[in-house]
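quick q for whoever's on today - can somebody do inverse folding on this one?? i tried earlier but teh output was garbage lol. tokens:
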């Protein structure tokens, strides 16, 4: 197996540059001062750099005690460049100048996203490795780095008692400047035996003066030159101390940039090896393609004298994807303007649209086939023209166990539809992170600007826990999927939803265990008169609707037949948002109502298909004929007869069949 140095000596350009400038390099070698010569066999061995190169190439050098000419080759051939004021120092060899200096901008952007993992209240360690940003508030590092401060508890990963963790994006040589961000949570740590990866979240209130995160360079070409950005530490266990001091001029614990090449790009399915100069503190370092500045790996182990190992960026991306972490992507073959896949999260970071591959969304046959099949509601001809479409032309956004259909003009959902299995429900911990869906253009969905500095809450259409059923992995994925903005609508913070939020359980309680499944549809009732939230320019809907579909049983003789049943409800917040309210229509004090599905079709402009005839609050055929109207009526006030509308004072008022 080649050592790092033997691999470095295959770089003919570096060697030629080294040998062509022998006298100058020897004269300027900073570690050949008297105080740095201890441990170097100063006058023995090869007299010239060329001889030293030949000995290194043949493996004849004692790497723990090299001669001074051998040490020069080791130190200068593949330098670990100090970072000062956000950029790397100019390398001595011309070949590195030619490669690096014209790419300084993209390299510096990557440098700005790398931080030192600092610990507070740890009795043994001030810092323990390196981490780097994959999006606005998420960092990756190594599992073995996180092991210094992480504890696995019943509810998930937490911090060891009393320990605080910070990411410091500065810590440069001869500078006291810091840019610390508190790590607020440990999102995930890969189990032992899998790629050495951990995902950390920082406190967003700490964000300031930060560069845009770099892209993850997925599936692209093998880079000609790589760079490792991190914080080398004096690691005596794995590296001879004299050789380290000569290599790093006895300067440790500060940010450095080390150029190199990939040695074995397929060391394993998830790993590659490289020959850049690293030490123990480099654990968690970002490895970039110098040409593009894109991240191509996560350094996790190695020795300056033997091998260096990294997790492939595609393996890192797969882990991030499984945990719904958004990131910029690029293959390294595109222009800079075309690297990002998907849409922005509202602050410059982009999530990978491939995150949603394999999502099944709402299933029409969830309750059964034939007469029990419940398709998605159909929009009328006017609404179809307003549909938001994904970059691939789809109108249904599919998530785990639910789907959403978006009104592109209003930037909110026409409706979301979910399947709920009451026998397999789980309760994963809440994730306080809302994200735009990268499959939609940003101007077709409402983001954080709608909820900033006002009384509007981010209200879930499909409740967060409703899709969280099945295996733990499915439930965790559904939990994260529920936090995308297409499933969110603006609701006043004082809106009373005491009945609205319990309707699903109420219907499930009335079903047999064998039929403990329901499908739920929740949407906005859009009206041209809805008030505008000035900061975002988005009209805020005053009413929301919900339809529940479940299975009931009827007896005919000895048979017990499964039948479809459904209920529809409306929630109003108009009295909280603008002076005019619905008291004249509904009666004082009510915010929640049961309505006939036929009435809801008139109000919403949707066709609910088989649910209309499955309504447990149905009207007579005579009344239906009287109130029948064309579905092209997009919106309207609840002005139907009392036979179509029932105020709800409690769950006992619900007509559930």
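ok took a stab at it. sequence:
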């Amino acid at each position: 197996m080649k050592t790092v140095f033997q691999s470095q000596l295959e770089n003919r350009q570096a060697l030629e540059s080294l040998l062509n400038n022998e006298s100058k390099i020897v004269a300027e070698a900073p570690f050949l001062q008297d105080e740095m010569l201890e441990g170097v066999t100063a006058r023995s061995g090869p007299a010239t750099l060329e001889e030293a190169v030949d000995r290194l190439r043949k493996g004849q050098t004692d790497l723990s005690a090299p001669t001074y000419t051998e040490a020069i080759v080791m130190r200068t051939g593949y330098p670990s460049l100090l970072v000062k004021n956000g950029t790397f120092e100019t390398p001595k060899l011309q070949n590195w100048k030619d490669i690096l200096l014209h790419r300084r901008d993209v390299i510096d952007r990557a440098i700005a996203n790398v931080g030192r993992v600092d610990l507070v209240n740890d009795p043994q360690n001030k810092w323990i490795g390196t981490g780097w940003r994959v999006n606005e508030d998420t960092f990756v590092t190594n599992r073995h780095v996180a092991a210094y401060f992480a504890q696995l508890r019943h509810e998930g990963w937490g911090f060891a008692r009393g320990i605080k963790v910070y990411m410091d994006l500065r810590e440069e040589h001869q500078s006291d400047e810091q840019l610390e961000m508190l790590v607020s949570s440990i999102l995930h740590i890969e189990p032992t035996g899998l790629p050495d990866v951990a995902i950390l979240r920082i406190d967003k209130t700490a964000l300031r003066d930060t560069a845009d995160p770099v892209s993850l360079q997925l599936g692209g070409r093998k880079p000609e030159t790589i760079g490792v950005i991190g914080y080398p530490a004096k690691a005596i266990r794995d590296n001879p101390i004299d050789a380290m001091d000569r290599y790093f001029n006895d300067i440790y614990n500060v940010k450095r940039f080390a150029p190199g090449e990939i040695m074995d790009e397929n060391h394993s399915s998830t790993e590659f090896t490289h020959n850049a100069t690293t030490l123990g503190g480099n654990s968690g370092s970002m490895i970039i393609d110098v040409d593009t500045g894109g991240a191509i790996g996560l350094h996790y182990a190695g020795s300056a004298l033997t091998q260096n190992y990294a997790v492939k960026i595609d393996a890192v991306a797969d882990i991030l994807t499984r945990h719904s972490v958004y990131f910029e992507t690029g293959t390294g073959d595109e222009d800079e303007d075309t690297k990002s896949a998907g849409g922005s999260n509202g602050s410059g970071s982009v999530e990978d649209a491939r995150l949603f591959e394999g999502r099944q969304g709402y299933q029409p046959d969830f309750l059964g086939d034939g007469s029990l099949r419940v398709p998605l509601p159909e929009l009328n001809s006017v609404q179809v023209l307003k549909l938001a479409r994904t970059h691939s032309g789809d109108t249904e956004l599919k998530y785990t166990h639910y789907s959403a259909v978006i009104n592109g003009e209003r930037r909110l959902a026409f409706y979301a539809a979910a399947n709920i299995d009451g026998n397999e429900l789980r309760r994963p911990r809440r994730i306080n992170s809302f994200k735009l869906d990268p499959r939609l253009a940003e101007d077709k969905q409402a983001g954080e600007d709608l909820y900033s500095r006002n009384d509007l809450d981010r209200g879930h259409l499909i409740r967060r826990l409703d899709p969280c059923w099945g295996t733990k992995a499915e439930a965790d994925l559904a939990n994260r999927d529920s936090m995308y903005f297409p499933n969110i609508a603006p609701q006043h913070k004082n809106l009373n939803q005491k009945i609205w939020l319990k309707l699903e359980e109420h219907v499930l309680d009335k079903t047999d265990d064998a039929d403990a499944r329901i499908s739920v549809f929740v949407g906005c009732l859009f009206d041209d008169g809805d008030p505008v939230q000035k900061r975002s320019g988005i009209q805020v809907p005053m009413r929301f609707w919900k339809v529940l579909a479940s299975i009931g049983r009827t007896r005919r003789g000895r048979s017990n037949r499964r039948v479809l049943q459904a209920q529809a409800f409306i929630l109003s917040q108009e009295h909280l948002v603008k002076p005019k309210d619905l008291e004249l229509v509904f009666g004082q004090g009510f915010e929640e109502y049961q309505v006939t599905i036929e009435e809801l079709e008139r109000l919403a402009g949707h066709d609910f298909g088989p649910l209309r005839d499955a309504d447990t609050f149905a009207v007579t055929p005579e009344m239906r004929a009287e109130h029948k109207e064309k579905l092209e009526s997009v919106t309207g006030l609840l002005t139907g007869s009392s036979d179509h509308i029932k105020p709800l004072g409690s769950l006992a008022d619900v007509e559930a069949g």
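fwiw The chain has 17 helices and 32 strands. also The mean pLDDT is 79. so keep that in mind when u check it
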